[in-house]
Prior knowledge:
The chain has helices at residues 2-19, 22-28, 32-37, 43-46, 54-80, 87-101, 104-109, 122-135, 151-168, 175-192, 196-204, and strands spanning 140-143, 147-150. The protein is mainly alpha-helical.
Amino acid sequence: MTTTFIIIGITILISILAFNDNNLFEKLQLNPYNVINRNQWYRIITHGFTHADSIHLIVNMIVLFSFGRSVENQFDILAHKGILHSATLHMLIIYFAGMIIATSTTLIKHRNNSNYNSVGASGAVSAVVFAAIFFSPKSTILIMGVLPLPAILFGILYLFYSQYKSRKGNDNVNHDAHFIGAVFGFIYPLLIDPSLFKYFINQLF
Length: 205
């Protein structure tokens, strides 16, 4: 749980600083044109520590808090079983690799659009959420804090929704990042140990 709390603390700090400094905000946000054409690759990380507004920040951090603890606990269990060496290391990998990989489609799609910008930890948070779904597919997720759904059903609906909204492209949300981050998070345990697929099936059925 410590790693989750540290990530949340750093994200809140940087986001608040960026809220009050437009120059900092512009330097940290993901701008695919600047990443590709000006080699500002740091943006694929820094954009995850900035948010559009306080609501965007709060929602992402609440979700990360809720699911990050569960994933860290699962990594701790795997570490004690000798399947992985460090729960902390793998928590950092899934979060930051999720953040980086989630930008891949965005970088390709908007590499020539100097006006496109994106901020937020949603890609990384989606990776954490879907890792939690992998380990506990039959747990209950409350939609909007009210509607209960099995985690695996929520995951399927989330992926379909993200794809649908990405195709429509009629809002300012980076749905591609949500989708790719989620898929990465779900398969990450299999990258650690393919035999965990049997664990997933056992949990599901």
